Automatic annotation (TrEMBL):
Residues 1-232 form the EAL domain. It holds the Pfam family EAL. It comes from the Bacteria. PROSITE patterns: EAL. This is EAL domain-containing protein.
Amino acid sequence: MRTVKRSDSSYLFEPIVTVSGGILGFELVKKSAHQAANKQHPHDAGSQTFHLSAEERIKNFFDAVTLACINADIFTHNNFLLSIRIDYEIASHIVNNAAMRNVLQQHNYIRLTLDAFFPEFSPEQDRPVLHALSEHGPLWLDHFGEGNTSLTLVMNEKFEHIKISQHFFWQHQGTLSFRQIIEHLQPYSQGVIIGGIESARHLEYLKGSQIQGMQGILWSAYSQEEFIQSFF
């Protein structure tokens, strides 16, 4: 594990809010990725990592996990979950790193969230990394509606929560087909989370939908200092 201080200012905690107004948990993101998402970058915040090498992305993941462990008391005392997004290279590293797997199992509020472009999501693709990873804890699916995601994937694999892409939501918001998609996804997970919530109108579109949570700039992200002050 790398050295990350409790006062680290390079990460933000984005709240994931329940339909009743409570907090299901948070997504831990680098500030640059959060800023890119707020500017409606083509592939959301995850595209900001494309220019990084696999080694750099793995190092960033180690930093995120370290920060998650530093804040363990907040998550356990409040029953919050913490989503950390990973790609194929990071997933492969976890599968082959017993020490990291032990850390994740000891801090069971951490949820590994798989990127929509995970190569093993492609149809007819073998999924050894995905299946090995799923043996060590619940997985979330990120950006449903983009990349290699599909209803078939959701039906055949186990995801604790499914996060619908903000761009998919913006494109289909308020339509009957969008509500039907939520209904189709619901039986295969413990809940659907909608990304890209920016206004009261978005909340109105989702009223009555069978969703578990929401995420977006309607709710301000917390710096590490603000996170401690608010929940410790």
